[in-house]
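Human: I wish I could look at a protein chain and see how it folds. This is the protein in question:
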Amino acid sequence: MDGGHDKAHAATEGAELHRYVHVLYERRWAVAACLVAGAAGFAWWASHQFKVYQATTTIVVEATPPQVMGGEVRDVVQVGPGQYWEMQDYIQTQRRVLTSDRLAARVVARLHLERDPAFWPDGLPASERAAAQAFIDAVSADRVPDTQVIAVSYRHRDPEQAKRAVDALADAYIESNEAGRDVSTASASLWLAKQSDDLRKRLADSELALYEFKKRNELLSVSLEERVNNVARQIDKLSDALTEARLRRVARTAEADELERIKSGDAEAVAPVANSPALESLRAQVIDEERKLSELRARYEEPHPLVRQQVAKTALVRAALGREIDRLVGAARSRETEAREEEKSIAAQLAEAKDEGLRMTRLEIDYNKLKREADAVSKQYLLVENRSKEIELSSKIKANNLHVLDYARVPTVPVSPHLVRAGLGAMSLAVLVALLLALLLDALDSSVKSQEDVEHKLGLPLLGLMPRVPRSGEPGPGGAVTRPIVIEDPTSPAAECCRVIRTNLLYAGLKQPLRRLLVTSSLAREGKTLMTVNLGAVLAQGQSKVLLIDSDLRSPRLHKALGMRSGIGLTDVLLGNATLDEAIQPTGIPNLSVLLSGGVPPNPADVIEGAAFRDLLDACSARFDRVVLDSPPVLPVTDPALLATYCDGVLVVVRSGRTGVAQVRRTRQAVGDLGARLLGVVLNDHSPRGFGYGYGYYERYGSPVDDKARKAAL
């Protein structure tokens, strides 16, 4: 199934291509006229063109200029892209610079092109601006693919002028790049010099402020850092001394308090706290005397003299111990007071040291601020000075990232006009216009030319195609009168086409026999008479008795088509001047007879419309198997419409490429309005010459009648 679909699709495409080729062949004179006009126009254009020459200079665009002084000395401006990936944009920018108005004005001023007759072959311009515009219009700058090279081209009628101008453009471009670098360097140098003066003054002011600060705070001999360290060490020492003084004061206070307890309490029950031999001796004596007193009291009564004596001695020893304790307590309190005073003194010194430390810290902050400002200004000053020296060195080095690779050569071959390419383009355009013209003429042509026009535009069946053949009755070779093509050349494609038409008519008459057939056309000279003769002959070859009737009573031509003389005919029979047997004549073709028109009546329509004519047709149908009527054209007169009502079918002959679609439609309406049966259309005078048409081509236009239907029709 797919294979059948592909074949059908291929056949459709082939038919479309065949149609276009046929259209071109039909409009061959219009196509030829377009081609000739295109060739003539190109020849005229080429003869009026001036030769234009193009000179090209190549310029290398490097990413960075050569580093003569190494990487430490840098330019004030970056003259090339910093990254490889930026190179594309950089080169595009340089292309725009090369074609800029400013650079063109420099070249014009350098070469004085506004006064150069070689630059202005047709006269001098009015201003340098006009010269610059004319110059830039002829300049192009293109990147050489996969390189960092820009090809700068200039076009001019004079090859020497083209070379001189493009070389000057390249030099001006290089110089412009260097000048831009120099201008930027000079501007940067002036700015850096001004900054250097300002920074030098600021540095002097900051150093003087630092000196005044040291002088005011007596920091000239000893550094502030050392002073801060000394104060910190002093604070540490005083802090330790204060701690020791506090410990001594606490110890002496505890000693004095213990002695007070000894004084107020039992001396023997308190451990010694003072390192005093006298106190220890007295305490031992008190203990000894009290022991003796206890012993005496154990032996004697209280009034005993020994007891009283011992009591007195013990009291004396106790009194001596009290005095010694009082002396020690006074001494301890005195030492406590001394320790307390020492503690206060050390605390006061520590407070003074801390105040000095805070003052030193504040001084250090202020000093560091002044020093930072001085250091920052000093660094800026050194940076500016170093950069100024770098710029001074770089300005003396004429390094450039642009240089000319090759200057232009004097061109010897013009680039315009390119006659071969222009000729091909002109011919292509002419061919295109010719094709469009042919298709346009074909689209505007409303005539019927093909089977598709008959079937799609008219909606009528195509009974067959008739090629262009010599007319019957016209002198042939040797002066003899030619007979119908089916008799004269029975194997020709035209004869086969007649047989195809016969077969299609017989096939159409299977359901309703076609005993009487009317052959007509829309207009005159469309070949209906020729079709009548050939159709009658081919029907007669099918063993049918056929009668041809010339019913065109206005301009009869059937006798001429058969090579016969006009004599007794249809009008004579209708008027009673002759019998039907006398009027019917043989044609010399077996089974084919003819009834000529006879004399031309003054009112043909009235003759045809009468009952006598209908009776005559009935008599003819009784004698012959087929009756074929040749009628006038449908559109000029009403006769064919009347004749169509007497016949079993109507065949309309349409002349290919002459009869319009609208005319055939009016013919169909005129015939159909009276209820006549329109069988179809025969496309006459179809001219397939030059395309290999032959028998097979016309055979495919027959209806698909199988053998049984064909035999039944015959």
Confidence is low (pLDDT under 50) at residues 266-273, 472-482, 689-714. The CA atoms of residues 27 and 438 lie 6 Å apart. Residues 305-396 form the longest helix (92 residues). The longest strand covers residues 53-61.
